[in-house]
Automatic annotation (TrEMBL), chain A:
Top-level taxon: Eukaryota
Major localisation: cytoplasm
Matches recorded under Pfam families: Sedlin_N
GO cellular component, one term: perinuclear region of cytoplasm
Localization per Swiss-Prot or TrEMBL: Cytoplasm, Perinuclear region
The organism of origin for this protein: Monopterus albus
The protein, known as: Trafficking protein particle complex subunit 2-like protein
GO process annotations (BP): endoplasmic reticulum to Golgi vesicle-mediated transport
Protein's UniProt keywords contain Oxidoreductase: no
Automatic annotation (TrEMBL), chain B:
Domain EH as annotated: residue spans: 10-97, 301-385
Signal sequence region: none
Family matches, as SMART domains: EH (SM00027)
Biased composition (Low complexity): 634-664
UniProt keyword Disulfide bond, yes or no: no
Lineage per the UniProt record: Eukaryota, Metazoa, Chordata, Craniata, Vertebrata
One GO term describing the cellular component: cytosol
Coiled-coil segments: 774-805
One GO biological process term: endocytosis
Protein's UniProt name: RALBP1 associated Eps domain containing 1
Organism encoding this protein: Monopterus albus (Swamp eel)
Biased composition regions of type Polar residues, renumbered to the chain: 528-551, 577-595
């Protein structure tokens, strides 16, 4: 279960960010922001081999003492970032991948909505629902 | 102003309103006073009202003349239905509901409309009209101040009851209720009302719908003023329902007022109803009925939606792209966020385009939203697009069709009626059941395909031993197989009637344990041929493929039971197959008698049983000659060997046989010549050989080996050879060993084989030769088919992999 989920646009501004309500949500925002550097680095690194399709799932971006941050980037440079509690060691890589897959699918559905302008914050209820399903169930 | 054509209902309604507004009786209405109140009550934004007044020309004139007033009313109706305000739409919009006005004015109108509904107008109209009219305003105010929620609920409830009764009416716009406020809890009240309404009367509903607002007012005051309502329906029929409502809605006080109102209103409403016209009532009912099952789309509505769909996309089976839909729905002036939500709900397959069903659902949601109803969190069942293939069980029930269209809603609504909340529960159930239905149907259809295969097999391509035996094999019934064999053989070898006879003979053979193997082998061969035949038909092929997977199993299953199927379906392998063919040919000739005459495959019944191998006509093109049999053949070679296609090996045999003891010659001869079977021992021999062919596979006797040894040089095709060998060997030993056995064999063989009267030696030979050729061709073709099938499969796999790669590469284009 994720502690924070964020969707960042190509220009590196957040389209959607949602965290488990805690006292200091800002630190999640900060974590996500700093993870963007790692994402960029990974993208550029893989970009060398243009022939190959770049792997969308970036894996663990960096672990902090409290959290682990996973990244996923789409082919249109939209980034998904999931922050997971470090103490939750039961989460395996596959599960993270499936979470990203679901996020990506929901994101695609949102994009398909003609009333949604790319670049706008995501306000889709279905997307919210999916994200909620992934967040840590507090209490 | 352009001319305005009003329906009767509209005409009456508008005239009523005009009268209402025309307090001065001057035939023209000032721009202020009641008119403005009325327009305000229409719950439209002020700019829209201004626009309307402008359009209708009142601003020009400075007042509302009758015509302007009517135009304005119509424009209000248009605006309320969410359509763009345009002068041309005045006459073009069909099925436009009557303009709805909020409480106060609404009541008057509602009453009017209610009156419309009620066909019994009772002269009280004038009095009631006036009496009623003044009241609503007062009430209206009350309402506005009154507890909105409570009133709203009752209103909804009231509406609900009406709606159900109206059912048939389309409901383009929400009932008057909406003005009060978006019914937050509408689902619940709806539900209840629905139930209550089960007996409701149509008219009432209209009244109710229209007077939704009115009711709320009435409610508060209580039943007293109810009498003023009069609108209600004066119908007696409604009364009973009212009672039911009352009792039913013990928990919904508001509803109680309704019934009370009714009786009192009956007196007055009847009068007011004067203008009632079915159309109006229909409209109102439509409005309310839509909410019974809150999201049901009535036929009128659906028709309207379809027309709108056509304006964007003429092809009803096509899609509306997202951009076009966006423009269209943006006209409804709903906030983008809500439109976005509506889109999420209605784009069922998430493809960014709207099909007709999706479009109707979206439009319906827009209409509902414009009327003040909250958007549901999930798409209601009645709005779900009807999808044919139920493959996504995760999604909301696909099979639920639009209520307006199919009968399924009937099933759906009962589920839903209990309560909105139960909708969700109902959906899964519906879904599941539907899914089950779907799957069931699929299953059944698949099973049908199997059976169909059977029937198709026979008539299939006569030129190829297609006969998709797969299906046949699935049915282990011997008889069935025999039939198939018959069909197959007949199709395969039309000229050879013996074949037809063969199946029965073969079946007899099948009885023999030995034959089982043979049959199994044959079935395998059949499998090949059947699969080959599929090339001509993709579908059968695919099906066959799936079935062929099972066919081997089936074969195995079949094998144990006496496999009647003719082994010859594909003589690909065993010479014995050919033998069978010849046998069948022989049998076809019609002599299952052990009279030895028959058995076409048997060595030609040449009067010279003892040929020393020379004259194999060597037509056994197929090198199925069993070396051992050669020896045997040698004996039989002299004769009709050439006639038997399978007897190629015989020639070989003969070659060998030349050097060998022609003891088996007779048998070989039989093989060689299907048609020419002497009734003499030769016939017996061949019979035996034939029979042994049938059983050939089963007996890899050592004699065979020996025979093989002798036939070494021949090196015929392994299997057929083997068979031949076996047969030969068998024959030989049989000959040598058991006279009676031989006779039995012969009998069996003869029985199985179409007895070919050797009398017509030459004819037989010719026939047999042709048979043999055909068989050879068949087997070759069968093999070719199988190979092509395999290639096709490979190519398809390649194609799929390439497509996958393409898909992977495609996203890059977005970067």
């Amino acid at each position: 279960m994720a502690v924070c989920i964020a969707v960042i646009a190509k220009q590196n501004y957040p389209l959607y960010i949602r965290s488990v309500p805690t006292q200091n949500e800002l630190k999640f925002h900060y974590t996500v922001h700093t993870s963007l550097d790692v994402v960029e680095e990974k993208i550029s690194a893989v970009g060398k081999s243009l022939g190959d399709q770049r792997e969308l799932y970036l894996g663990l971006l960096y672990p902090t003492e409290d959290y682990k941050v996973y990244g996923y980037v789409t082919n249109s440079k939209v980034k998904f970032v999931i922050v997971v509690d470090s103490s939750n060691t039961s989460l395996r890589d596959n599960e993270i991948r499936s979470m990203f897959r679901k996020l990506h699918n929901s994101f695609t559905d949102v994009m398909c909505n003609p009333f949604h302008n790319p670049g706008d914050p995501i306000q889709s209820k279905t997307f919210d629902g999916i994200v909620s399903g992934m967040m840590v169930q507090t209490g | 102003m352009e001319s305005l054509t009003l329906s009767d209902v509209e005409q009456k309604y508008y005239s009523e309103l005009f009268i209402y507004c025309d307090t001065d009786n001057t035939k023209k209405v000032a721009s202020n006073g009641r008119v403005l109140d009325l327009f305000r009550a229409a719950q439209l934004p002020s700019e829209v009202v201004l626009q309307i007044t402008e359009l209708c020309g009142a601003t020009r004139l400075g007042y509302f003349g009758r015509s302007q007033f009517y135009i304005a009313l119509k424009l209000i109706a248009i605006a309320q239905s969410g359509l763009p305000l345009r002068v041309e739409s005045l006459n073009s919009v069909k099925d436009l509901p009557l303009p709805r006005f909020a409480v106060g004015k609404n009541e008057a109108e509602v009453r009017h409309t209610a009156l419309y509904q009620d066909t019994d107008s009772q002269g009280m109209y004038p009095a009631s009209g006036t009496a009623v009219i003044p009241r609503p305003p007062g009430r209206g105010y009350q309402n506005k101040k009154g507890p909105p929620s409570s009133t709203s609920l009752p209103v909804h409830e009231v509406v609900q009851p009406l709606a159900p009764t109206i059912e048939s009416q389309p409901e383009p716009t929400s009932p008057v209720v909406s003005p009060h406020q978006s019914p937050p809890t509408s689902p619940h009240p709806w539900r209840k009302h629905k139930r209550q309404h089960s007996g409701g009367n149509a008219d009432r509903q209209q009244v109710v719908a229209a007077t939704g607002a009115v009711w709320t007012q009435f409610r508060e005051p209580q039943t007293g003023p109810v009498s003023g309502d009069g609108m209600w329906s004066s119908h007696s029929p409604p009364l009973p329902s009212q009672e039911s409502w009352v009792s039913f809605t013990a928990d919904t006080p508001p509803s109680i007022t309704l019934p009370a109102a009714h009786p009192s209103s009956v007196q007055e409403s009847t009068t007011i109803r004067t203008v009632a016209s079915a159309a109006t009532t229909n409209e109102i009912q439509r409005q309310s009925s839509g909410y019974d099952d809150p999201w049901k789309i009535t036929d009128e509505q659906r028709q309207y939606y379809i027309n709108q769909f056509k304006t964007i996309q003429p092809d009803l089976t096509g899609f509306i792209p997202g951009s076009a839909a966006k423009e269209f729905f943006t006209k409804s002036k709903l906030p983008i966020l809500e439109l976005s939500h509506i889109w999420e709900l209605s784009d069922f397959d998430k493809d960014g385009a709207l099909t007709l069903d999706e479009f109707c659902a979206a439009f319906h949601l827009v209409v509902a939203r414009k009327n003040g109803y909250d958007l549901p969190e999930k798409l209601p069942e009645s709005l779900m697009p009807k999808l044919i293939d139920l493959d996504d069980s995760a999604e909301v029930p696909e099979p639920t069709a639009d209520v307006g269209y199919s009968g399924s809603p009937v099933e759906v609504t009962p589920n839903k009626s209990p309560s909105m909340p139960s909708l969700n529960q109902a959906w899964p159930e519906m879904n599941q059941s539907n899914e089950q239905w779907e799957t069931f149907s699929e299953r059944s259809s698949s099973s049908q395909t199997l059976t169909q295969f059977d029937s198709n097999i026979a008539p299939a391509d006569p030129d190829t031993a297609i006969v998709h035996p797969v299906a046949i094999r699935m049915t282990p019934s011997k008889i069935h197989m025999q039939e198939m064999e018959l069909k197959r053989t007949s199709s395969d070898h039309n000229p050879t009637s013996p074949l037809l006879a063969k199946p029965p003979e073969l079946s007899e053979e099948a009885k023999l344990p030995a034959s089982m193997k043979f049959v199994a082998a044959n079935t395998v061969g059949d499998g090949y041929s059947s699969s080959d035949s599929f090339t001509s038909d993709q579908e059968p092929i695919t099906r066959q493929r799936s079935q062929s997977g099972t066919s081997p199993e089936a074969l195995k299953v079949v094998a144990p039971p006496p496999p009647p199927p003719r082994p010859h379906p594909s003589h690909s392998r065993s010479s014995s197959l050919d033998m069978n063919r010849t046998f069948t040919a022989a049998s076809a000739t019609g002599q299952p008698q052990p009279s030895t005459t028959a058995y076409p495959p048997a060595v030609p019944p040449r009067p010279l049983p003892t040929q020393t191998s020379a004259s194999h006509t060597g037509h056994r093109v197929e090198a199925e000659a069993v070396p051992g049999s050669v020896a045997v053949l040698t004996t039989t070679s002299p004769q009709q060997i050439p006639q038997q296609p399978n007897f190629a090996d015989f020639s070989q045999f003969q070659a060998f046989a030349a050097s060998e003891q022609p003891s088996s010659l007779p048998e070989v001869d039989k093989h060689c010549e299907a048609g020419q079977v002497d009734k003499t021992s030769e016939g017996a021999g061949p019979l035996r050989t034939v029979k042994s062919d049938g059983q050939a596979d089963e007996r890899p006797s050592t004699t065979v080996n020996s025979a093989k040894g002798s036939s070494g040089p021949l090196a015929p095709p392994p299997k057929p050879v083997r068979r031949r060998l076996k047969s030969e060997d068998e024959l030989r030993p049989e000959d040598e060993q058991h006279g009676p056995q031989k006779s039995n064999v012969i009998a069996a063989v003869l029985a199985t084989q179409p007895s070919i009267p050797r009398s017509l030696g030459k004819d037989k030979k010719a026939i047999q030769a042709s048979i043999r050729r055909n068989k050879e061709t068949n087997t070759v073709l069968a093999r070719l088919n199988s190979e092509l099938q395999q290639q096709l499969k490979d190519l398809l796999e390649e194609r799929i992999s390439l497509e996958v790669q393409l898909e992977q590469l495609r996203p890059f284009s977005h970067l």
